[in-house]
Amino acid sequence: MTARQQVRIGVIGAGLMGKELAGVVGRWSALQQSPVDPVLTAVCDVNAPALDWFRRVGSVQTFTTEYRELLDGSVDVLYVAVPHHLHEKLYVDIAESGVDFLGEKPFGIDPFASATIGDAIAGSSAFVRCSSEMPFYPGAQQAIRYLQQGSAGRIIEAEFAFLHSSDLNPDKPINWKRQTQFCGQIGVMGDLGMHVTHVPLRLGWRPETVFAQLQELVSVRPDGKGGTVPCDTIENATLTGRVGTGTGTFPISLQTKRVAPGEMNTWRMRVVGMDGGVEFSTRYPQSLRVMTVRDGAQVWEERMAGSQSAQPTITGPIFEFGFPDALLQMWAAYLAERAGELGDAFGCATPQEALASHELFDAALVSSASAAAAPVAAGVRRRHTAADVSGVLGRD
Ligand SMILES: NC(=O)c1ccc[n+]([C@@H]2O[C@H](COP(=O)([O-])OP(=O)(O)OC[C@H]3O[C@@H](n4cnc5c(N)ncnc54)[C@H](O)[C@@H]3O)[C@@H](O)[C@H]2O)c1
């Protein structure tokens, strides 16, 4: 057996997601056959106290508040999990330094930032992918394979959604994701959108036009210091697009919602065609539903999804799969692809897919402002301003 290549990983942004990486690396032995052996060696955060959490990870040797210190070749891969307004600066700097990285979505605050990041990556030798872990649920993987095999036949319609509900509580304090200056004019689409576009884009389903209904539901939130501040991001976005393929044109629905009562963290997809259909939701992660016509009867059958995703693990096939497993799968896919050993397995979202998502969200803003369907323009490089956002339901 050949020795596995050690990969030194550094985290930039020691917040919610940065900490998750420590858990992923700690569970690496659950993978059956990874070509690499990742070691978390460095952490960076401008907020020095945030670094302290990482002192429990024995392999971390570098603690810094300056991300440029991690661009000197001392780490092989960076995980960048910082607020959206910082993506452009950091991702461009890292790409120009030639260090490989997995960057958090949405890969820039607007299409200009995303295209600028794309240019820097195109001119760099760095291997770069965008974070999006939900499609790695086994049920989602099986649904994707079903569709790639053409089992649904001519597609009638498709729906993809990512739904949250904690914003239903008006007393939940503000954070940067609820403030346009940090999250972007695209609001919830920047936060949750890459999660719903990853699979359709991978299937080659790029909407040609989109009609968007954007919704403001909570305009003020506690500031955590006894006062209130504006909560100026769009909470919910419902996009209806038209997708043209070689076998016909069909409607696609893409929903991202921060106020979807009862849905804590639900990622779901549903596609039906003339020969069959498939449905999966992380709300019911153990199963997927498949539609077949049997003896003339239309049957939605429930298939057990099991624990195995794109990268085999030692986990018993009958056991349950969860969010940390999806992150492990995403990282296993990233590092396998970086090592040239992904093969036919499902890969992480690409910078091109991130940019295509931004083009879609940009068309959604245009649609909302005009109350009409808008074309999804490739190559759009717009800096968004407040003037780009109008027609929002709840702001009239
Ligand atoms: N993939 C997912 O499921 C998922 C879930 C949540 C968030 N995210 C994404 O992860 C990213 C971070 O979100 P989060 O929830 O972890 O945010 P967070 O606020 O919990 O953490 C962000 C951290 O970045 C630090 N930071 C800010 N500026 C920095 C700089 N210049 N250098 C180093 N550190 C800096 C902050 O101090 C903070 O600790 C965002 O892009 C977000 O969209 C992804």
UniProtKB/TrEMBL annotation:
The keyword Oxidoreductase applies. Residues 7-110 form the Gfo/Idh/MocA-like oxidoreductase N-terminal domain. It comes from the Bacteria. GO terms for molecular function: nucleotide binding; oxidoreductase activity. Keywords: Oxidoreductase. Residues 141-278 form the GFO/IDH/MocA-like oxidoreductase domain. The keyword RNA-binding does not apply. This is Gfo/Idh/MocA family oxidoreductase. The lineage of its organism: Bacteria, Bacillati, Actinomycetota, Actinomycetes, Nakamurellales.
